[in-house]
Amino acid sequence: MGKTIKFVQGNEACVEAALYAGLDFFAGYPITPSTEIAEHLAIRLPRIGGKFIQMEDEIASICAIIGASLTGRKVMTPPAAPAFL
Asked: Is there a contact between 56 and 78 (Cβ–Cβ < 8 Å)?
């Protein structure tokens, strides 16, 4: 049994999946319930050469990821309202 099983919270699983898919740019800000996404990516992205930017609101986050995606980056911003998770 060479497999390692790791139990994680949903937000951490989201981060791992995004990194596995090639995420290299994140713009967002810490707001419940997605604070952990920003916290984990603030640590993980710089280690792999990605960029993390903390923004002031949802509109700024969307604008930042649209701009980054136009340059070929794989981007992500988390939902800011609890209803979307």
From this structure: no
Main-chain phi, psi angles of 3, to 5 degrees:
-85, 140
Cα-based torsion angle of the residue sequence 83, 67, 17, 24 in order, rounded to the nearest 10 degrees: -140
Rounded Cα distance between 11 and 50, Å, is 19
Residue type, 60: A
Give the amino acid at 79.
Answer: P
| Count of alpha carbons within 13 angstroms of residue 16, beta-carbon side | 8
Per-residue tokens: 2: 């060479």
Distance between CA 85 and CA 30 in Å, rounded? 14
Residue with tokens 């340059």: 71
Per-residue pLDDT of the chain (85 residues; tens, 9 = 90+): 578 888 899 999 999 999 999 999 999 988 888 899 999 999 999 999 999 999 998 899 999 999 999 999 999 998 766 655 4
